[in-house]
Write a structure and sequence with these properties.
Elements: H1 12-18, E1 35-37, E2 43-45, H2 46-49, E3 57-59, E4 66-68, H3 80-91, E5 95-97, E6 104-109, H4 111-115, E7 131-133, E8 137-140, E9 145-148, H5 149-154, E10 166-168, H6 175-178, E11 187-191, E12 196-199, H7 200-205, H8 208-211, E13 214-216, H9 217-272, H10 279-327, H11 330-336
Pfam family, one: zf-B_box
Organism: Neodrepanis coruscans
InterPro entries: RNF207, Znf-RING_euk, Znf_B-box, Znf_RING, Znf_RING/FYVE/PHD, Znf_RING_CS
């Protein structure tokens, strides 16, 4: 991984054409290992960034934006959301066995489907799944056991299981999120003020004015989904505007090039018919036209590079939001969504 840490990245336009997988580091081309989030919202493996910081600042290998790094490691903070998606992708290869009939099901990661269409982000409830199950499997959070589809219909449809919480296997509640680590009680509330989940004891220990900012888990989850939907739409609009601006700038660059070529040909034709005494004047004008062309092209290229560097970030965040919604259960969403 560290063999090509300091090799320069290609141009932003080349990265866009490559349609990089959002769970693969652009430096080492391997799945993220402890992904670090820079101030420009680009992610790289911790090992790929180690040793790059200078005077408390670290320049992004992709766009060059400086990020302030603190502490002795010289690294930005770990992106918990991206780490969650990487871990969820690894969990997608587990072998699952029905607790009732011992039927097995292997979940396979579909990276191509996960990436989705870069030109049209999926809407909520129509998201590309992080894991595609070969056979439909469910999970009973109450029993803490996986169930195949037939057993769910035959056994867990009985009245005695009416209160059991049955979800898809990818949405099962992991043990780490079931209970409050401080009181060992299940989470029942969410504090919109502190952006954290609360058990009954946490709620009782809160001050009266803070309790006014607490809502139940289901309501908090729905409100969070609505806000994330709005944010996704805003990012989609920004993505569309950025693409349109890139197309426009490319057309303007081409127009400047064509215009410069036409002017150069016209000047050559004009001065070809003139006498020898005008040759110096001819060279001066050609140099001026070439200088103007280079200045304009340089200015447009700088704008193009800036906008092109924005596209991978927009695509990663759209896919990240989509994958996060499809793979995270309510507790995971509330723990990481903010």
């Amino acid at each position: 991984m560290a063999g090509s840490i300091f090799s320069p990245l290609g141009s932003c336009s080349e990265l866009e054409k490559a349609n990089c997988h959002p769970l693969v580091c652009l430096l080492c081309h391997e799945p993220y290992q402890h992904p670090c989030l820079l101030d420009c919202y680009h992610n790289f493996c911790a090992n790929c960034l180690r040793g790059r910081a200078s005077d408390g600042r670290l320049r992004c290998p992709l766009c060059g934006h400086p990020s302030v790094v603190r502490g002795g490691t010289g690294l930005p903070p770990v992106d918990r959301l991206l780490q969650f998606l990487v871990d969820s992708s690894a969990d997608g290869e587990e072998d699952v066995q029905c607790a009732n009939c011992d039927r097995r099901c292997t979940k396979a990661v579909r990276a191509a489907e996960w990436a989705g269409d870069p030109h049209r982000g999926p809407a909520r409830h129509q998201l590309c799944p992080l894991t595609q199950e070969l056979d439909t499997m469910y999970f009973c959070n109450t029993c803490g056991q996986p169930l195949c589809a037939p057993c769910r219909e035959e056994t867990h449809r009985a009245r005695m299981f009416a209160r059991h919480e049955i979800v898809s296997l990818s949405k099962r509640t992991k043990d780490i999120h079931k209970k409050c680590p401080l009181h060992e009680e299940p989470y029942i509330m969410f504090s919109t003020e502190k952006k954290s989940m609360l058990c009954i004891n946490c709620f009782r220990d809160m001050q009266g004015e803070s309790r006014a900012h607490c809502i139940d888990i289901e309501t908090a989850y729905m409100q969070g989904c609505e806000r994330l939907d709005q944010a996704v739409m805003a990012v989609k609009e920004l993505q569309t505007s950025t693409r349109e601006a890139i197309v426009l700038l490319k057309a303007m660059i081409e127009e400047v090039r064509n215009s410069a070529s036409e002017e150069e040909a016209a000047i050559n034709s004009l001065f070809g018919r003139m006498q020898e005494q005008l040759s110096e004047r001819k060279k001066t004008l050609l140099k001026a036209v070439q200088s103007q062309h280079e200045e304009k092209e340089k200015a447009f290229k700088e704008q193009l590079a800036h906008l092109a560097s924005l596209l991978p970030t927009l695509q990663v965040h759209l896919v990240t939001c989509s994958a996060f919604l499809s793979s995270a259960n309510k507790a995971e969403f509330l723990d990481l969504g903010y």
